[in-house]
Structures are given as structure tokens and as C-alpha cells.
């Protein structure tokens, strides 16, 4: 039987939010129990699963694990925040119930914290696994060539969310400082959180693939509605971020370039999804903008190519006009 360990200040709380991943949650739990670091509090929060999840987590061998069972589905962000509120650890990490950790994940991240007391968060590289746990890909970090402590993580995060959500251990005092996840962002709450942390704290990185992201049928198919939600939330996030007057000048000087980069990416997504008119309207607005934006040639070329490709897919008869 598992027993939560609660000795002293180096306790790490691992929170597993769960919803209808009965096929995988046992593997997620075991990956936490098999950690080489043994000062761990494990909490499972089930968000009203309708599959066999409750039966699995009720197994006798998991009796010592704290469990919170929702009668009604509250959604991911609300569940994440609940986990942060109820946990006891000085360090906290979220693990999706379909993912796993390699055995030294917590030991490696804690070593980074212990060697660098001013860190706010430490994250690792990851691997992609399939339904059966076979490694089928990599979540390699192309920004940092080696492990270390970085002051410029914010600059990279403004362009792209390169920190896998469940690969990052956060110091509890940081959570108390910046607050919980913003429920405005249902799809990119982690990106907002990393921006908020990196604005105030140093970020540590362990260049080892210690987090295992499972790719399977449920998380591989993404609807057009979901893509549009992500696009809208990214626009709100980036615009809102630059409303902070306390940002250092070198970050504020990036505002126009960063906003235009995200708008251009959204144009590409619109065109590739078949929303040509919306993409073209945004492009026209950008070209006529008084902010001095210069349209990058390579981006412009991608936009034209995406438009023509989408046009051909929807109306093959038009190909003859481009020969």
C-alpha cells in the first residue's frame, strides 16, 4: 500500500488530474511511485470520469493516495487550481493521467532547485510514447544546448510555448506570489503561467528526456473549433501581456514584432484551415497598419503558397488556370 510522505520542506506534490483515461492512469500513478526521489505527496483529482478510472484508482495498492472525486465535471483549469490549493509540498508538479515520468524526473529537477535557490520553475525535455509506452518521438528543446539556469526564457516564451506543461516543477512560493491559473485560457493556461513566472523568476532546464508524453487517439485529433479557440486565446494572451507597464524596456521593444508574428501565424492557420477570407482580412489590416510593421518576405511566401494549396484542394478544376 502506498503511503504519502510528508517530511520537512523538500516535499514535492505531484497532482494527477484525471478525466476518462482509465486505460493509462495506472501507468501514470506507477511512474510517480517508482521515482528515485522518495519525499513525494501524490494527489489524484478525478473530474467526474465515466469510464473505469474510479475502479482503477480505488485498488487496494493505492489506498494511501489522497483522492478527490468530482461529482460534476469542472474542467481542466479549475481542477489544476484545486490541486494547487490542496497540496502541501514546497514544490508542485502536474502530471496528466495519460502521461508518465521517467524514474529520475523529480530527483533531477530537485537537484537543479537545490543548486540554484533563486529559481521559480525547472523543466525537462521529454519523449513521445504511444499507447503501449514505446518511444516514438522526441520533445527535444532546440533553444538550450545544455542544462542550466536562464534569465532570457521570457524572450523565447513570447514566440512559442516550448515548455511542456507536465515537465515543469514549480516552487510553491512562486504559486503564492503570482496566483493560480487564469480560467480565461481554457487551452493555453500553461503558456500564460510560464510567461507570468518567467517575467519575475529565473528558469531552470534539465536537458534530459525525463517526461513522457503519450500520443494516442484522444489527443491526436483536434477539431477546427479547438484550433480557433487556441488562436483566439493566443491573441488575447499576447495583447494582454504587453499591457503590463512594468515590463523591462527590451521586452516592450519586442511588442510590435511579437504581435505581428502571432498574427501572421494565425493568418497561415486560417488559410490552411480553409478560412481564406478571414485570413486575407487580417493580412490587409496588418499591411495597412500604422505601426510600421514590415511583412517578412518568407512569411508572405508561405501565405501565398498556403492560399494556392487550399484553393486547389477545394476546387481542383482551378488548377488549369495556374499552369
In a few lines, what is going on in this structure?
This protein has helices spanning 25-33, 53-57, 76-86, 105-115, 153-159, 172-178, 189-198, 217-220, 224-241, 249-252, 255-272, 276-287, 297-314; strands spanning 12-18, 40-46, 66-69, 91-94, 100-101, 119-129, 135-139, 148-150, 168-171, 202-214.
**Net shape:** globular
* Name of the CATH superfamily of the largest domain: Spore Coat Polysaccharide Biosynthesis Protein SpsA, Chain A
CATH third-level topology of the largest domain: Spore Coat Polysaccharide Biosynthesis Protein SpsA, Chain A
Unreliable runs, pLDDT <50, ≥5 residues?
317-323
Beta-sheet strand percentage?
A: 15-25%
Instruction: State the distance separating the first and last CA atoms.
Output: 70 Å
Average of the residue pLDDT scores: 87
Number of helices: 13
- Main sheet characteristics: 10 strands, mixed
Q: Based on DSSP secondary structure assignment, what is the total number of beta strands?
A: 10
Rg calculated over all Cα atoms: 22 Å
CATH architecture of the largest domain: Alpha-Beta Complex
Helix content: 40-55%
Amino acid at each position: 500500500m502506498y503511503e504519502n510522505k510528508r517530511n520537512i520542506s523538500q516535499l514535492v506534490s505531484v497532482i494527477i488530474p484525471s478525466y476518462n483515461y482509465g486505460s493509462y492512469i495506472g501507468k501514470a500513478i506507477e511512474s510517480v511511485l517508482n521515482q528515485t526521489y522518495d519525499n513525494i505527496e501524490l494527489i489524484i483529482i478525478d473530474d467526474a470520469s465515466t469510464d473505469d478510472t474510479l475502479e482503477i484508482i480505488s485498488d487496494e495498492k493505492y489506498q494511501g493516495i489522497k483522492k478527490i472525486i468530482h461529482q460534476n465535471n469542472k474542467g481542466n483549469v479549475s481542477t489544476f487550481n484545486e490541486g494547487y490549493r490542496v497540496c502541501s509540498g514546497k514544490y508542485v508538479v502536474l502530471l496528466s493521467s495519460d502521461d508518465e515520468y521517467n524514474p529520475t524526473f523529480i530527483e533531477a529537477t530537485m537537484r537543479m532547485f537545490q543548486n540554484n535557490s533563486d529559481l521559480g520553475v525547472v523543466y525537462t525535455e521529454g519523449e513521445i510514447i504511444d499507447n503501449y509506452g514505446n518511444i516514438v518521438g522526441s520533445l527535444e528543446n532546440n533553444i538550450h544546448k545544455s542544462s542550466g539556469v536562464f534569465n532570457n526564457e521570457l524572450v523565447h516564451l513570447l514566440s512559442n510555448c516550448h515548455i511542456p506543461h507536465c515537465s515543469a516543477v514549480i516552487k510553491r512560493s512562486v504559486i503564492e506570489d503570482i496566483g493560480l491559473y487564469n480560467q480565461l485560457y481554457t487551452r493555453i493556461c500553461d503558456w500564460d503561467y510560464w510567461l507570468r513566472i518567467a517575467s519575475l523568476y529565473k528558469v531552470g532546464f534539465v536537458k534530459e528526456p525525463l517526461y513522457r508524453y503519450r500520443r494516442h487517439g484522444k489527443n491526436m485529433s483536434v477539431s477546427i473549433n479547438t484550433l480557433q479557440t487556441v488562436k483566439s486565446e493566443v491573441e488575447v494572451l499576447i495583447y494582454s501581456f504587453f499591457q503590463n507597464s512594468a515590463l523591462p524596456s527590451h521586452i516592450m521593444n519586442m511588442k510590435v514584432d511579437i504581435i505581428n508574428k502571432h498574427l501572421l501565424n494565425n493568418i497561415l492557420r486560417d488559410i490552411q484551415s480553409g478560412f481564406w477570407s478571414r485570413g486575407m482580412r487580417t493580412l490587409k489590416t496588418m499591411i495597412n497598419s500604422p505601426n510600421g510593421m514590415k511583412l517578412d518576405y518568407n512569411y508572405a511566401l508561405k501565405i501565398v503558397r498556403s492560399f494556392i494549396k487550399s484553393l486547389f484542394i477545394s476546387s481542383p478544376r482551378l488548377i488549369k488556370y495556374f499552369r
